[in-house]
Amino acid sequence: MPSSASSSPGDTAAAPPQEPALQAHFDRTIARDQRVEPRDWMPEGYRRTLIRQIAQHAHSEIIGMQPEGAWITRAPSLRRKAILFAKVQDEAGHGLYLYSAAETLGADRDDLTDRLIEGRQKYSSIFNYPTPTFADVGVIGWFVDGAAICNQVPLCRSSYGPYARAMVRVCKEESFHQRQGYELLRTMMAGTQAQRDMVQDAVDRWWWPSLMMFGPPDDDSPNSAQSMAWRIKRHSNDELRQKFVDMTVPQAEKLGVTLPDPELKWNEERGHHDFGTPDFSELMRVIKGDGPCNAERMARRRTAHEEGAWVREAAAAHAAKQARRTAERARGEEKEHAA
Ligand SMILES: [Fe+2]
Ligand SMILES: [Fe+2]
């Protein structure tokens, strides 16, 4: 990357004469499938789109800790508790990588948190559904983490370097999440009839909301084309949804559950499964705040933020003290050197 690609914050606002050259360099980077890095010049729209997408992704990871986190204290065995603990903790880690990736674009983490808490930025609609039974933990792992894998594996090749690199580790962990969910469901399916019914009930409740995780249909998704042109996104919503369905159907057969869609069948000609249309008006309703658990999730997040204020203050005070000590030591060494 030539050093001319870096810019001071004022550059873009003032539209300086060198911008066409910078734009051309950016376009070449994208066309050659190379990565855009934090210090490179980038169009404001690209930066804004990425901040919005990465922030939404980060918020989803953090809010996503809640539906399953509620089962940690009630897990049926020590083994299940340890697995669930590790999984929920991973999601916190994903949130933190992603907030850091957003910071490389000039976003401020406190500001992003405020936007979430004030409802100005969204998180994935899926986390607004309740988890009344332990089978929900299994189905979330299988469906929700499975859908996350479909969405996130292509993001490992996203054009923005820090986002793409964060996704590599995130995807490895999502793969563990999906497996632990599926393994939990297999155990329950080998159990009593009541356990099998519990699994089927959870499958019935989560199937359609999971399909909605891929967003609205392509012809109703205005920002997708630009995101694909910038190679932030690699596949359309409908392509990813199809991939998820094709991947999940044989797993459901193996597990012995029925996916609640009468239109679901293999289409020999297309080489894909045909399936019904999710109720996208429900998706819009839930995104706008009217899902079964939106209020509860936000209230919990707000309380956690308020209760964590002392930790942030203590961490800041500790960092300031360390910085002071490092500076004092450096001054001491300088004096010694001079003497
Ligand atoms: Fe995650
Ligand atoms: Fe996950």
UniProtKB/TrEMBL annotation:
Gene3D superfamilies reported in the protein's UniProt record: 1.20.1260.10
Pfam family name, one: PaaA_PaaC
Start-end of Polar residues biased regions: 1-10
Feature: compositional bias, Basic and acidic residues: 325-339
Domain of life (superkingdom): Bacteria
Span list, region Disordered: 1-23, 314-339
Name this protein carries in UniProt: 1,2-phenylacetyl-CoA epoxidase subunit PaaA
Species in which this protein is naturally found: Streptomyces ochraceiscleroticus
Lineage: Bacteria, Bacillati, Actinomycetota, Actinomycetes, Kitasatosporales
